[in-house]
Specification:
Blueprint: E1 5-10, H1 12-17, E2 18-28, H2 32-39, E3 43-44, E4 49-53, E5 56-60, E6 63-64, E7 81-84, H3 87-98, E8 102-112, E9 115-125, H4 128-153
Antiparallel strand pairs: 1-8, 2-7, 2-9, 3-6, 4-5, 5-7, 8-9
Length: about 150
C-alpha cells in the first residue's frame, strides 16, 4: 500500500544551519485545534528542536498558530509537544545528542495516511565559512544547470 504524504511544513533553514544525518519519523501528540491549524498550514519549524527529558522525547519551539475557528479552548502556539518514538529510538537520540555540537532538528512536518508525522534529523552546527561554502556550491550547480539548459535550447 502506497502511503499518501502531504507536506504541511518544511524546515529548509535546518539544511542551511546544520549538517544533517540520521533521519527518523515520529508521531506527535496534538490537541484538536492544533491538528486543524496544522492542516491549514499554520506551522513554523524554523527555531524548533527535539530534546529527551526523563526518557521522553519532546518537540520544543515549534510554532503552531491558533486555529481561526477555535474558542476559549484554543491551544498555546509555542507549547512543548510530545514525540511518539520507540524506546530504542529515544535511547539512540539521547546517546547522539550527548556528543558535543549535535542536536535534533525537525526537517518536515507532514500528513501521512491521515496522521501528522514529523521527520527528525541529527544535526551538527555549521560555522559561517561552512555556510558560505554550501552557498557557493549551490550557486555553481545552478549556473551549470542554466548553462546546460541554454545549450540544449540552442
Amino acid at each position: 500500500m502506497e502511503a499518501k504524504i502531504k507536506i504541511l511544513s518544511d524546515n529548509r533553514a535546518a539544511g542551511h544551519h546544520y549538517y544533517l544525518s540520521d533521519r527518523l519519523e515520529a508521531g506527535l501528540v496534538l490537541t484538536g485545534t492544533e491538528v486543524k491549524a496544522a492542516r491549514d498550514g499554520r506551522i513554523q519549524l524554523k527555531d524548533a528542536f527535539a530534546e529527551v527529558v526523563a526518557n521522553e522525547a519532546w518537540l520544543s519551539n515549534a510554532h503552531i498558530g491558533q486555529y481561526s475557528h477555535g474558542n476559549i479552548m484554543n491551544h498555546q502556539p509555542m507549547r512543548r509537544r510530545k514525540l511518539l518514538l520507540h524506546r530504542q529510538e529515544i535511547t539512540k537520540l539521547l546517546e547522539r545528542t550527548r556528543e558535543k555540537g549535535l542536536t535534533v532538528v525537525p526537517t518536515k512536518l507532514y500528513l501521512k495516511n491521515g496522521l501528522i508525522k514529523v521527520e527528525l534529523a541529527v544535526g551538527r552546527g555549521k560555522k559561517l565559512h561552512d555556510k558560505r561554502e554550501s552557498e557557493r556550491e549551490r550557486e555553481m550547480q545552478a549556473e551549470a544547470r542554466a548553462g546546460l539548459h541554454r545549450r540544449a535550447k540552442g
